[in-house]
Design a protein that fits this description.
Aspartate Aminotransferase, domain 1; pyridoxal phosphate; 3 domains; five-stranded mixed sheet; 13% strand; 17 helices; 14 strands; binds gamma-amino-butanoic acid; alpha/beta; pyridoxal phosphate binding
């Protein structure tokens, strides 16, 4: 113990080299259109190549640097202009700088004392997102992904209606009813299971041919569920569904919720960023009438995984949950020394426990900045910093341009899909999700035959396999409702050019030609 147990000089030299590798392989090559999007290996081949076994002795510098290169080499280049596989893609240098800063700081923004800068940035970013929703007050917290943000919404909605459920659980609650559209994100079902509400109590409301929730069907479902003796609680509307990119009619849904006194949550994980664009924000008209919103800037704004904001309209203050006070009075590991907090926001009343080792009330600074108890998490990533730095770099206008460019790129591709023989739209896109089939020459003209759709459903997976093995690009496909497998093209990366989009269609045509 006489000397430090870490060799910092060698560590810094190693890091210098890793930074070079990151810049060369992780940033430059990963975004270079002349490089492959992925270097496909079968799992066992990759296991062998990576030499994954963890041994008793450590390895030398050169070997470790090679391992760092291998991580980048054999991973998918999500920043590549021809990676269209997910709702996230691209590489923003400023946001990446934010991610480096976050990683280097290695702290959790649960208290101001360990993360002063990050807590204030998070506060600012959340306030700005709320302002774009149309709220002048409220609360919020960053969560690990949109699914968790949606689950927070369900939990807060239940707590507001039944505050005693926090301590007593679900056992003496009425049977609750949750409502979301047939096209809603699967996290609503997962959340219902996780919170003990039960997936049987999630009522999937019919959508129209564009994938939008039908408000009259919502009304009918609520009436039906009430008649069966359940208590409707929560409606999740979706602004930008995962596959079709559909936007539910928020104003009409808000009317239904107001009539029945239901919590309205908007899952705008994907479409929320349209609020930045004066031309596109009409897609979310009525969002200001909601109680809570999920918004993932890591998708369309290219902030980097992960950055999911849970935004809450409620700005009521009240006494902490009795449990919070109780823990402050009893001896035990969670004793909260200091004066009990007299007023807390809904998020903190719902989740706060006041652990004595983090949230002491007798600190010398404004403890309302100790925001960690608003979250069910303890350790939490500081996901606001990278968005703050990106916002500083490009401004609100730059963020809006990013959204509008993605929209324009989709319109260009749409025109090309309509023009080219063999490409067939699933439907006119409302947003950035372009859904289409490629019909190989062997199937053309057979649209009325019995096997046509069966055979067409096998085309997208076959083309996808070929493109991954070739490493030329990546795009997602899925079946949806009565539609057999089709491609879902998503362009969020501003590095994508018209040439990339032409290449995209040429490549599908080439890979699917002989199927
Ligand atoms: N949360 C849904 C994201 C899935 C996708 O990237 O397609």
């Amino acid at each position: 113990l006489e000397c430090p147990g870490l060799d910092t000089a060698t560590g810094e030299e190693f890091l210098q080299e890793v930074f070079q590798i990151l810049l060369e392989e992780g940033v430059r090559k990963s975004t270079d259109v002349t490089q492959k999007v992925c270097d496909w290996k079968e799992p066992q081949e990759l296991r062998d190549l990576l030499d994954l076994e963890l041994r008793s002795d450590g390895e030398g510098r050169e070997r470790l640097l090679q391992r760092c290169r291998d991580v980048l080499r054999f991973s998918v280049r999500t920043g590549h202009p021809r990676f269209f596989n997910q709702l996230f893609s691209g590489l923003d240098h400023h946001a990446l700088a934010g991610r480096f800063l976050t990683e280097t700081l290695n702290t959790s923004p649960y208290t101001y004392e360990v993360a002063p800068v990050l807590v204030l940035m998070e506060e600012q970013v959340l306030a700005k997102l709320r302002e774009l929703v149309g709220w002048s007050s409220g609360d919020g917290i960053f969560a690990p992904g949109g699914s968790m943000s949606n689950m927070l919404a369900m939990n807060v909605a239940r707590f507001r209606r039944f505050p005693e459920s926090r301590s007593r659980g679900n056992w003496d609650l009425p049977r609750l009813g949750l409502f979301a559209s047939q096209e809603s994100h699967y996290s609503i079902l997962k959340g219902a299971a996780l919170l003990g509400i039960g997936t049987d109590n999630v009522h999937l409301v019919r959508t129209d041919e564009r994938g939008k929730m039908i408000p009259e069907e919502l009304e009918k479902e609520i009436q039906r569920v009430k008649a069966e003796g359940s208590e409707p609680l929560f409606v999740c509307a979706t602004s930008g569904t995962t596959v079709l990119g559909a936007f539910d009619p928020l104003d009409a849904i808000a009317d239904v919720c107001a009539r029945h006194g239901l919590w309205l949550h908007v899952d705008a994980a994907w479409g929320g960023s349209a609020l930045l664009s004066p031309q596109l924000r009409h897609l979310l008209a009525g969002i200001h009438r909601s109680d809570s919103v999920t918004w993932n800037p890591h998708k369309l704004l290219m902030v980097g995984l992960q950055c999911s904001a849970f935004l809450l309209h409620d700005s009521s203050v009240g006494a902490p949950h009795p449990e919070f006070m109780l823990l402050g009075c009893l001896p035990g590991p969670l004793i909260n020394f200091g004066a009990p907090c007299s007023s807390q926001g809904l998020l903190q009343r719902c989740h706060g426990v006041g652990a004595s080792y983090l949230f002491q009330r007798d600190k010398f600074y404004d403890v309302s900045l100790d925001t960690g108890d608003k979250s069910p998490q303890c350790g939490r990533r500081a996901d606001g910093l990278k968005l703050w730095i990106l916002w500083k770099a490009v401004g609100t206008r730059g963020l809006a341009q990013r959204v509008e460019r993605a929209f324009s790129a989709t319109r260009y591709l749409l025109e090309q899909v309509k023009r080219r023989e063999g490409f067939q739209l699933v439907m006119e896109p409302e947003f950035i999700n372009l859904c289409f089939w490629f019909i190989p020459p062997s199937l053309r003209g057979q649209e009325n035959s019995l096997e046509f759709w069966d055979k067409l459903g096998k085309v997208a997976p076959a083309i996808k396999e070929k493109m991954i093995r070739r490493g030329s690009m990546m795009v997602g496909y899925q079946p949806q409702g009565s539609h057999v497998n089709f491609f879902r093209q998503i362009i969020t990366n501003p590095a994508v050019t018209r040439q990339d989009l032409d290449f995209f269609l040429d490549e599908i045509q080439e890979l699917g030609w002989d199927l």
